[in-house]
Amino acid sequence: MVDEQQPIFVVQHHLATADHYDLRLEVDGVLVSWAVPKGPTLDPSRHRLAIRTGDHDLAHADYEGASERSVVQVWDRGTYRNTSHDKHNRPVPPAAALERGHLSVWLEGVKLRGGFTLIRTRQDDRSWLLVKKRDETAESGYEPTEHETNSVLSGRTIEDIAAG
Ligand code: MN
I need a surface site. Which of 2, 49, 63, 129 has the fewest CB within 10 A? Predict the structure, then answer.
């Protein structure tokens, strides 16, 4: 069930200079973004590098298409719940969690469902890790980007989109 009050997330498969997946989470009216070269995984033992990139407008969550230099596919889309807590188990709002470099979310997408954590690897650095939490939605060895390749918006593969 999609609760309209919940903030949205999107994962866009992006073919540009390098093939990557952009994870974007709605926080305070913008899409906070990371480029994940290998894409999200459901395997908690596979920590994925996630490079923090610039915030995007909310409208970008619906963008899918091809231009001369890049192709964008809406690979997954849905809502999320912030599940970030401090060491005393008190809830931490998303903006504060980003500042602390440790943001936990529960994603409710079409392909991705469950707990994920974004962890900044060093203070004052754009390098983060995207890690699947060990919960009932974890699946050892499963790479959704390999098996679920169609757009959740249009059903098209990225090759279809590239072809126009
Ligand atoms: Mn990108």
Answer: 2
Q: Which residues surround ligand 1, an ion (CB under 5 A)?
A: 14, 22
* Block residue for tokens 């998303």: 94
Judge whether 3 and 80 are in contact, CB under 8 Å.
no
What is the whole-number distance in angstroms between the Cα of residue 143 and the centre of ligand 1? 19
Instruction: Enumerate the β-bridge partners of residue 114.
Output: 107
* CA distances from residue 68 to 56, 86, 151 in whole angstroms, order as listed: 20, 45, 20
- For the chain, residues with pLDDT lower than 70 are 1-4
Q: Which H or E element spans position 10? A: strand 8-15
Distance, CA 81 to ligand 1 centroid (Å)? 23
**pLDDT value of position 5:** 80
Give residue 116 CA to ligand 1 midpoint distance, Å. Answer: 20
- CA 95 to ligand 1 centroid distance, Å: 22
